[in-house]
Specification:
- The longest helix has 22 residues.
- Helix 5 crosses helix 6.
- The protein folds into 2 domains: 181 residues, Rossmann fold (3-Layer(aba) Sandwich); 114 residues, 3-Layer(aba) Sandwich (Rossmann fold), CATH 3.40.50.
- By secondary structure, the chain is α/β, with parallel strands linked by helices.
- Strands 3-2-1-4-5-10-11 form a 7-stranded mixed β-sheet, with helices on both faces. A 4-stranded parallel β-sheet has the order 7-8-6-9, with helices on both faces.
- It contains 11 helices and 11 strands.
- The termini are far apart.
- Helix 4 links the parallel strand 4 and strand 5.
- It is elongated, with a radius of gyration of 21 Å.
- The structure holds adenosine-5'-diphosphate (ADP) and 6-O-phosphono-beta-D-fructofuranose.
């Protein structure tokens, strides 16, 4: 009987469990023996692989995190680590692997495919940084978490007539900042895709204050500025009290939204079918609301398109 294994890798994301459930259930329906690998590539290297049945994934569609664990294993760039990991699967007769993760995990999957493991990847990351899909699993839930927090910060910042600077995650991708900034009605959205100098930022805020804004919301992508220092500068130069909040890892937790559950279920179900058509390794995405299957290596070379028009829209509406 053909066999499939599943692992989750990199930063966890709400909806990963829904994706695991979809893959396990579809694989069993298609007649595959189904396995999970615990703790990403680290667990794969250590041989933490277990056969599962359909009840293994009961009651998880609504749970955040990943029930099979995830990890980061920097040593996975080494070919001997990759080869041993591939052999751990082959020793059990497993030649098909579903990898749920972000672009780093995709690169790991591509490496494994060179050792004869057919990999199908699913986009599981809050960052929305993959060019092979319009939306990644976890992005929508993280956005909703951010918005809930920003709405609360808006209350207190409005009461105190303060500027609230909120740092959000996203690694090298500004989508969490951009979308949350639009949805929360921020005055300024700062990300690596639309860089503003300190001077531009301060001038914008001075201008807004002179036009009668009594409080301001600024959303900043992580690693762009030291937000506490930025708050101090705003306080001094704009003449408005300012406070910084780093939302941190709470953005990665929580129950997946309906959107993420549906996305994960659609893509997870297609992942199993894709093993038939996929030659060496591929990835699943959603483009224009259609599930698509792409060659993995090609997808990793595709540039990510940023819709800069969204920044213009956000400016008009502030
Ligand atoms: P994400 O998948 O969310 O982007 P990372 O970038 O941390 O998260 O990648 C997850 C894991 O994938 C890494 O810890 C490593 O084990 C593996 N990985 C990342 N980049 C590569 C690469 N170039 N080659 C092989 N494996 C990689
Ligand atoms: O890739 C997801 C992500 O949450 C990024 O947004 C962030 O930069 C990174 O992971 C944080 O990683 P860690 O969990 O190792 O702190």
């Amino acid at each position: 009987m053909a066999k499939i294994a599943i692992l989750t890798s990199g930063g966890d994301a709400p909806g990963m469990n829904a994706a695991i459930r979809a893959v396990v259930r579809s694989a069993l329906v298609e007649g595959f023996e189904t396995y999970v690998v615990y703790d990403g590539y680290k667990g794969l290297y250590e041989g933490k692989i277990k056969q599962v049945e359909r009840y293994f994934v009961s009651e998880i569609i609504n749970r955040g995190g990943t029930i099979i664990g995830t990890a980061r294993l920097p040593q996975f760039v080494n070919v001997d680590v990759q080869e041993k990991s591939a052999n751990n699967l082959k020793d059990l007769g497993i030649k098909n692997l579903v990898v749920i993760g972000g672009d780093g995990s995709y690169r790991g999957a591509l490496a494994l495919s060179k050792f004869g493991i057919k990999c199908v990847c699913l986009p599981g990351t809050i960052d929305n940084d993959l060019s092979s899909t319009d939306f990644t699993i976890g992005f929508d839930t993280a956005l909703n978490t951010i918005i809930e927090a920003v709405d609360k910060l808006r209350d207190t910042s409005s009461s105190h007539q303060r500027c609230s600077i909120i740092e959000v995650m996203g690694r090298n991708c500004g989508d969490l900042a951009l979308y949350s900034g639009i949805a929360a009605g921020a005055e300024l959205i700062l990300s690596s895709e639309r860089v503003m100098t300190k001077e531009m930022i301060l001038n914008e805020l001075i201008q807004a204050k002179s036009e009668g804004k009594r409080h301001e919301i600024v959303i900043v992508s992580e690693k762009l500025f030291d937000v506490n220092k930025l708050a101090e500068e705003i306080q001094q130069k704009v003449g408005m009290e300012a406070r910084a909040t780093i939302l941190g890892h709470l953005q990665r937790g929580g129950k997946p939204s309906a959107f993420d559950r549906v996305l994960a279920s659609r893509m997870g179900s297609r992942a199993v079918e894709a093993f038939e058509s996929c030659y060496s390794s591929c990835c699943i995405g959603v483009k224009n609301n259609q599930v698509v299957v792409m060659d993995l290596e090609t997808s990793l070379k595709m540039p990510r398109m940023v819709d800069l028009r969204l920044y213009t829209d956000s400016e008009r509406l502030k």
